[in-house]
Design goal:
- This protein is α/β, with parallel strands linked by helices and about 190 residues long.
- Helices cover about 30% and strands about 20% of the residues.
- It contains five helices and six strands; from the N terminus they run βαβαββαβαβα.
- It has helices at about 20-25, 45-50, 85-95, 120-140, 180-189, and strands at about 5-10, 30-35, 55-60, 65-70, 100-110, 160.
- The chain is globular, with a radius of gyration of 16 Å.
């Protein structure tokens, strides 16, 4: 499954650079491409078109824990700005370039967007955890996942990125859990 990972944020604004750091820690693979951007712009719609799956990574001051969730269907226009959100980029890519793959957003909790190049210590610890869990998420290729922009409600398929809960591999299967993976491996041995 060809996957495009798009890290959005400004590494000169403290925790806003978290997505860039997570992306840096994810291992390269022949079926993956990566982009780092300061903001989402309409030009990304064409980039998405050649992929089966797109994952937007972004720091989010409003989330309390890391989560991967499907990009919801686009419902309204944003005011005229130079930035867009994942749903708008997805809608453009679908309408103009025929993108019909999976699209997800990984929200990384962030607190401090002050002008500085370093991440806070809490953010640094979280980045390592999120990168590891995203590796496992990217390894999942479940066809029962909802299609990007589907009418499924966003809350129907949240996938927490936490070591004790894990990243889900789709609504039909159990969420990924490091403890379950260890138990499954022991049972196979």
């Amino acid at each position: 499954m060809r996957t495009l990972l798009i890290a959005c944020g400004n590494p000169l604004r403290g925790d806003d650079g978290a997505a860039h750091e997570v992306l840096r820690l994810i291992a390269p693979a022949p079926d993956r491409a990566t982009l780092t951007v300061h903001q989402l712009t309409p030009e990304l719609a064409q980039e998405m078109a050649g992929f089966d799956r797109v994952l937007f990574l972004d720091a989010d001051v409003h989330c309390g824990r890391p989560v991967v969730e499907p990009v919801p269907a686009w419902t309204s226009r944003s005011p005229l700005t130079h930035a867009a959100n994942p749903a708008e980029i997805l809608a453009l890519s679908s309408a103009l370039f025929g993108f019909g793959g999976e699209a997800y957003v990984c929200r990384i909790p962030a607190r401090d967007f002050a002008p500085r190049e370093a991440l806070g210590p809490d953010e640094r610890r979280m980045i390592d955890e999120v990168a590891g869990e995203l590796e496992r998420f990217l390894a999942c290729t479940v066809s029962s996942r909802p299609r990007a922009g589907s009418s499924a409600k966003q809350d129907d398929f949240p996938h927490p990125v936490k070591a004790d809960v894990g990243v889900g591999c789709g609504p039909g299967g159990p969420p990924y859990s490091p403890a379950r993976a260890t138990a499954d491996k022991s049972n196979k041995d």
